[in-house]
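User: Hi! I have a protein structure encoded as tokens and I'd like to know what sequence might fold into it. I'm fairly new to this, so please keep things simple.
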């Protein structure tokens, strides 16, 4: 049985209490590793190490911090296949997706913020009255980075990289469901030149070590990506301490297809947006709004494409859809499909549990589903399912499309499909979301702000937004008459 250890003060180590929890391979439904269950003592040791490392790391020239991040990116890239295999085993996602998306993005995050370390700048404001202000951007100290299971190292590195680039030291906690790649990553830190204590990785449960990180008085800020309910818990727990918070939360994203779109392109986009990574991406377009004039044609094209998606062993190159993350999540997704039927929806394809032959017979697979006939306000159309489930809804005109899109407590992302660019710009302006794609989905430029409105989060990541989050601005005003 493989063991997954904490990384504290520059060394891989077991927990003080030596408690372990099981880690499952979703594609087989079997335990394949055990990870350290961190204790409060482990957290104290990690915080002490991070505090001890802070002054030197914050004073390290930006070019040197950048060199370390680039070296870490090199080391990950050299091990792309190992990281991809580990990520696919831990999450159930197709190996090809881990190889082509997850791991390259980890390296890209590290390189991007290596560049940002050197390019980040602050402002100065000259006053006619004979004074000049300049803004110092100083690192916060020890920061907590907490990430979910769907894009494990992709999202953890998206936090750790800017935190380090800005001169902070880090306590990182991956999801207990997917600890493996964070562990493999931590084993590269010293080789990349990261001094002991600069990044510490603690494994364990959200309610346990996750909450302790949030509550720890010496941790200055929390960068969190995960569910809206957990985000609310973290916001409540930190309110009294006024801890700096970045919350990237859930979504129920509309994909709006107008009759004047390029239908083939929109269909390809809708399938990608609905089902990539088994629909387990916060940006997935799970509400598919289609203009009445092409609704029937679009539904037919969609259902035939979704039926053609191959569900099965993540190692198989032909697989489009791997396993869902856990048995509990499989039950949740199947539960929502039952609810959709109760709410009057018709499941046009998929929705049943799949039991592939061979080694994956006990894995947690579900056939990708398309539903229609549900009201916009029903629970299936309002709650985040976070699985391979897309709900189709017709609309007549632009105003109705915008109203339906905005009928949600979430506001993370939206896609608009139309050849009428003025319409696209109008709808992009009125739709309530932090990110809008026009005639595409999930094209990501790392310089752009990433985050949501309403219950999809608070604050933005990406580009210099992350550098701003991980620094405190201090204005210095100098009089010079
Ligand atoms: P959770 O909110 O359950 O968990 C996210 C992380 O927080 C995990 O590491 C979890 O640990 C930890 N955690 C749980 N409870 C606490 C707590 N009380 N204090 C501190 N940490 C805690 O989300 P999921 O892992 O289920 O991820 C899916 C969710 O993430 C979806 O809602 C999805 O939309 C959202 N998401 C948002 C993104 C965005 O950018 N807006 C991107 C990707 C996902 P553990 O897993 O060990 O319990």
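Assistant: Happy to help. Inverse folding works backwards from shape to sequence: for each of the 481 positions I chose a residue that suits the local structure. Here it is:
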């Amino acid at each position: 049985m493989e063991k997954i250890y904490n990384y504290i003060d520059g060394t891989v180590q077991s927990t003080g209490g030596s408690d372990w929890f099981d880690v499952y391979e979703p594609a087989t439904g079997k335990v394949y590793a055990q990870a350290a269950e961190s204790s409060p003592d482990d957290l104290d040791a990690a915080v002490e190490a991070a505090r001890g490392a802070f002054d030197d790391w914050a004073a390290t020239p930006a070019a040197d911090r950048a060199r370390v991040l680039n070296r870490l990116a090199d080391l990950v890239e050299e091990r792309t296949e190992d990281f991809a295999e580990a990520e696919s085993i831990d999450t159930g996602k197709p190996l090809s997706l881990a190889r082509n998306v997850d791991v390259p993005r980890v390296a890209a995050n590290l390189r991007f913020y290596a560049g940002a370390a050197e390019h980040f700048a602050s402002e100065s404001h000259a006053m006619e009255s004979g004074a000049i202000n300049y803004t110092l951007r100083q690192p916060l100290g020890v920061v907590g980075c907490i990430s979910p299971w769907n894009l494990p190292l992709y999202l953890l590195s998206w936090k750790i990289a800017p935190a380090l680039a800005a001169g902070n030291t880090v306590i990182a906690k991956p999801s207990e469901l997917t600890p493996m790649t964070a562990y493999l990553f931590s084993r590269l830190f010293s080789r990349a030149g990261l001094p002991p204590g600069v990044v510490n990785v603690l494994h364990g449960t959200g309610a346990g070590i996750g909450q302790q990180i949030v509550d720890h008085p010496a941790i200055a800020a929390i960068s969190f990506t995960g569910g809206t309910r957990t985000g609310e818990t973290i916001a409540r727990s930190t309110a009294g301490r006024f801890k700096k918070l970045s919350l990237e939360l859930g979504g129920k994203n509309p994909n709006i297809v107008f009759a004047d779109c390029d239908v083939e392109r929109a269909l390809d986009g809708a399938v990608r947006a609905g089902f990539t990574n088994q629909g387990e991406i916060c940006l997935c377009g799970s509400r598919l709004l289609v203009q009445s004039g092409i609704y029937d044609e679009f539904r037919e094209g969609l259902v035939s494409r979704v039926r053609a998606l191959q569900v099965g062993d993540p190692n198989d190159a032909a697989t489009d859809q791997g396993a869902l993350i856990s048995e509990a999540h499989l039950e949740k997704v199947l539960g929502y499909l039952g609810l959709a039927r109760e709410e009057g929806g018709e499941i046009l394809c998929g929705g049943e549990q799949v039991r592939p032959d061979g080694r994956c017979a006990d894995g947690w697979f579900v056939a990708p589903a398309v539903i229609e006939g549900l009201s916009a306000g029903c629970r299936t159309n309002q709650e985040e399912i976070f699985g391979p489930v897309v709900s189709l809804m017709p609309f007549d005109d632009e105003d109705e499309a915008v109203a339906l899109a905005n009928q949600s407590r979430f506001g993370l992302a939206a896609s608009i499909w139309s050849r009428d660019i003025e319409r696209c710009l109008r709808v992009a302006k009125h739709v309530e979301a932090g990110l809008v794609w026009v005639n595409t989905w999930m094209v990501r430029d790392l310089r752009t702000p990433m985050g949501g409105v309403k219950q999809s989060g608070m604050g933005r990541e990406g580009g210099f937004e992350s550098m701003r989050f991980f620094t405190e601005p201090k204005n210095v005003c100098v009089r010079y008459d």
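A useful reference point when you look it over: Residues 146-150, 155, 173, 175-177, 205-207, 210-211, 214, 225-227, 230, 233-234, 248-251, 282, 384, 386, 412, 452, 457 surround NDP (CB under 6 Å). Feel free to ask if any position seems puzzling.
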